[in-house]
Design brief:
Blueprint: H1 8-19, E1 32-36, H2 39-49, E2 60-66, E3 69-78, H3 82-89, E4 97-105, H4 113-129, E5 133-138, H5 147-151, E6 155-159, E7 166-170, E8 173-175, H6 177-184, H7 189-195, E9 200-203, E10 208-213, H8 217-227, E11 235-238, E12 241-244, H9 252-255
Length: 256
């Protein structure tokens, strides 16, 4: 499968900038504020800019505001099956493990908007919900290598191994395998043909995985030791092509 050389969200921002008029441009007259926002507001924003066109398992949504203007959104949710993932990456089941489900920023948002929003919202979910670790994915099919996660000091733990799994396009909507079984009762071909005679499957491909470890210095040190065997150099883009380059491992930042 060939992969785009430019991030889809970046191309979407260029398109939105081209479509906008000067009166649409926001003047940064107020200091940025990061706060929890309504799911409906986050959904409207995400669907305008996001590659997948859905909210996934998002539950807790945060926005970067300039006055009444929403510049960026990030959404989190608990993992559907945390125990298996905790064992996979070597964390015990006492760890409160969430996922960064969706995120996007406007074409006019400052370059630092995404990393600031992620960093501060992680502090908020740690303080409010006791979250210890957050997993985030970057999709090469959308031209992503996780630049924003790197700027937010996440640990890179390599690529996923989908193992030949498939997603399903049913009545024009994309579903992961678990959602298909939950919503339609079965993933069997005969059953799905009754629901949508033109349904399609889509091969699940590998994605980049990033991990945020939260809490105080001592707590993060313990978590870092648990996942040290998974830590890899950040993937980088060179002339539009993804490459893995040497980078100091995420240890100093995690313990600062």
């Amino acid at each position: 499968m060939s992969q785009p050389l430019t991030c889809w969200q970046y191309l979407r921002k260029l398109s939105k900038r081209h479509e906008s008029s000067p009166s649409d441009r926001v003047v940064y007259e107020s200091r940025p504020e990061i706060c929890m926002i309504e799911y409906s507001a986050a959904r409207e924003f995400i669907l305008e800019y996001e590659w997948l066109g859905n909210m996934g398992t998002s539950k807790y949504c945060f926005g970067l505001m300039f006055g009444t203007h929403l510049a960026a959104v990030v959404c989190y949710g608990p993992l559907v099956a945390p125990s298996g993932y905790l064992r996979l990456i070597g964390l015990d089941e006492s760890v409160q493990f969430w996922q960064l489900c969706r995120g996007a920023s406007t074409y006019w948002a400052p370059k630092w908007s995404g990393s600031m929003l992620i960093s501060r919202s992680l502090t908020l979910i740690r303080n409010s919900y006791g979250v210890d670790a957050v997993i985030a994915y970057a999709d090469p099919a959308a031209g992503e290598i996780g630049t924003i996660y790197q700027a937010s000091n996440a640990i890179y733990i390599g690529m996923t191994s989908p193992g030949g799994g498939k997603k399903y396009i049913i009545n024009g909507k994309l579903y992961d395998p678990r959602k298909v079984h939950k919503k339609f009762g079965s993933r069997s071909r005969d059953h799905l043909l009754q629901i949508d005679p033109n349904y399609q499957t889509q091969q699940i491909h590998s994605k980049h995985r990033y991990l945020f470890l939260l809490g105080n210095r001592v707590h993060r040190r313990r978590l870092v030791e648990s996942v040290r065997h998974l830590i890899r150099p950040y993937p980088k883009r060179k002339f539009g092509i993804e490459q893995s380059v040497a980078k100091p491992l995420y240890l100093t930042t995690a313990l600062s």
